[in-house]
Design brief:
With 150 residues, the chain is an alpha/beta fold. It has one domain (7-147): Alpha-Beta Complex (Nucleoside Triphosphate Pyrophosphohydrolase). The protein has helices at 47-59, 116-120, 131-136; strands at residues 7-16, 19-24, 33-34, 38-40, 62-75, 82-94, 110-115, 125-126, 141-147. Strands 1, 2, 4, 5, 6, 7 and 9 form a seven-stranded mixed sheet that branches. Strands 3-8 form a two-stranded parallel sheet. A hairpin with a 2-residue loop joins strand 1 (7-16) and strand 2 (19-24). The longest helix is centred in the middle third of the chain and has 13 residues, at 47-59. The protein starts with 6 loop residues before the first strand and ends with a strand. The mean pLDDT is 90.
Length: 150
């Protein structure tokens, strides 16, 4: 296993009409796994600025970044990839989900709102496991290191 620097990323927990916005970030439909929108932090820019930029790129939405909700980390023991995600509650300030929106990097291919029941009853595959608790809960959570899945 090669050692690589740990990647830091920010993720948005966006509730709208009591439904959570998730994205599929697997080009070409390689996976049915859903996650919160967000991405890698650029050095020299604050976490909220990075997150607002990533959310806009992936969804076309403008958001206000609120309080932190979850710290999650995952790794791939084969490649040595290790990422720490910082999840923040966010509020939509402009825009709507438009199916014609295209992620400029071509990573996110789908974006949808899901109910808490969709997550809790296993109607979709998503990560991290504590996503529903973080989105609809009030406390900051730490979701310990887990092996990456595809």
């Amino acid at each position: 296993m090669s050692r690589r620097p740990t990647r830091l990323a920010t993720r948005a927990l966006i509730l709208h009409e009591d439904r959570l916005l998730l994205v599929n970030a697997y080009p070409g439909g390689r996976s049915d796994l859903w996650c919160a929108p967000g991405g890698g932090v650029e050095s020299g820019s604050s976490l909220p600025v990075n997150l607002a930029r990533e959310v806009h790129e992936e969804t076309g939405l403008t958001v206000a970044v609120g309080a932190p909700a979850l710290i999650n980390e995952f790794h791939d023991p084969v490649s040595g990839f290790h990422q720490v995600d910082l999840f923040f509650h966010c509020t939509i300030t402009a825009g709507t989900i438009d199916p014609r929106w295209r992620d400029p990097e071509g990573v996110v291919t789908q974006r949808r709102f899901f109910s808490r029941q969709d997550l809790e009853l296993g109607r979709i595959r998503f990560k991290p496991d504590s996503l529903a608790q973080a989105a609809w809960g009030a406390t900051v959570l730490y979701d310990p290191l887990e092996v990456i899945i595809r």
